[in-house]
């Protein structure tokens, strides 16, 4: 049975509870200071107690994004980078290092000097790429500083589809293997792995729904509306426009709780399927970072994620807010790496 690792707060805690826990973290980091933004000097304002590394930062910080400018990962990274620059009193420059489906960017983070002057926004791809034989970089290759986001996979079909639930789709695939076609990302990308894991969880061959690679959710949705594919798996936020215009319909979300903004869409658990999977984002740096530098960053990022500006931005963008501190994030990434690796191997997607 594929373990349900995605975005599951420990002991059933919700994202809101996790944010409350970050407030407790801040109380410890800030020596009693009130949570909020720094004053832009890196030494004053409510965030001054976060700066336990007295000589950090030493000049501008490079913030690596493994994907193209304009995408979801890039937009989250730019928001965090701007806020972090304000808190630290330095320039945090976003650099898009693309290629290899995230390989180049994640390798850039892992291979940098561990002085904290190079950071990045790691994604769930970090827990997948090495299983696919594309890189040796894994969650163990970096310092996981703070998780800021998680988004479950959604299951979307054309508005006139005969399928009305995820269970309908799975049962049809079971009885008619190879007839249905899915898309939403490149071969063996996160949304492909999410669909393969769902099928395996239900005892169906992973290739019972044939996968056609795409450049992302948007072109896949166009194919869905045109009848070129039968199902798209991606975050529902990426499909919002098409869903709102009723050109497509959502059959379910791969999580234990509804996706933000899509509370009317049933979870798989509500449909009797015990399976969760999705993507996540978090701030990471090279392995071997100084503990005081990491603690400084962890504390400031907790303040950012707890802030009203970040929460509003993420809600407006359709992204879920899930915060984990460094220890929790590292443990979560390790578990997620194992879960995604199991799916990749069982689905025959690895080399």
Describe the structure.
By secondary structure, this protein is an alpha/beta fold. The protein has a 6-stranded mixed beta sheet with strand order 2-1-3-10-4-11. The protein has a 5-stranded mixed beta sheet with strand order 7-6-8-5-9. It is globular, with a radius of gyration of 20 Å.
* Count of all domains: 2
CATH architecture of the largest domain: 3-Layer(aba) Sandwich
Report helical residue fraction.
25-40%
Mean of pLDDT: 87
How many beta-strand runs? 11
Kindly provide the name of the CATH class of the largest domain: Alpha Beta
Succession of helices and strands: HEHEHEEEHEHEHEHEEHHEH
Major sheet: arrangement of strands: 2-1-3-10-4-11
Instruction: Bin the strand percentage.
Output: 15-25%
Shape: globular
State the low-pLDDT regions, or none: 1-5, 7-45
What's the alpha carbon Rg, rounded to whole Å? 20 Å
Distance between the ends: 22 Å
> What does the main sheet amount to?
6 strands, mixed
